[in-house]
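Why does residue order matter? Because the sequence determines the fold. Keep that principle in mind as you read this record.
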Amino acid sequence: MIQVGDIVRTSYDQRPLVVIEVADGCRCPDYLAQIDCDGSPCDHERNCDEDCPMTRHDPTHLHLVCVLAEIHATGRWRKTDHRHYGGYAHKTEHLLHCIWQGGVTPSGNPDEIRILGHVAGSQLPLGLEA
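Structure:
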């Protein structure tokens, strides 16, 4: 499962990225659906959230915030360095695929994020259950 500190590579960019935030369990509609929303059937025009009647029963997905590994290595990055990726779900332990827009990039390639490893020196969760 993806976690903060993982090194990833996307279909869009072959440079390694480091995950700095993970939001799991989301059911929001994809970006284009939100933009094109006319308020049907919920009357919440362009205020889509996890309670959207069109997606509330869909499988959950992840949103990630990443920075380039070379910037992460400096230990100093700004919000302008953040790269946001939304609508991804685990396909395998080390592969995420986008569930939005057919799961393909504009060039027609699969929209995927590969987990390559973990940043040295970052802590992993212990996995202890209470």
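The chain has a mean pLDDT of 83.
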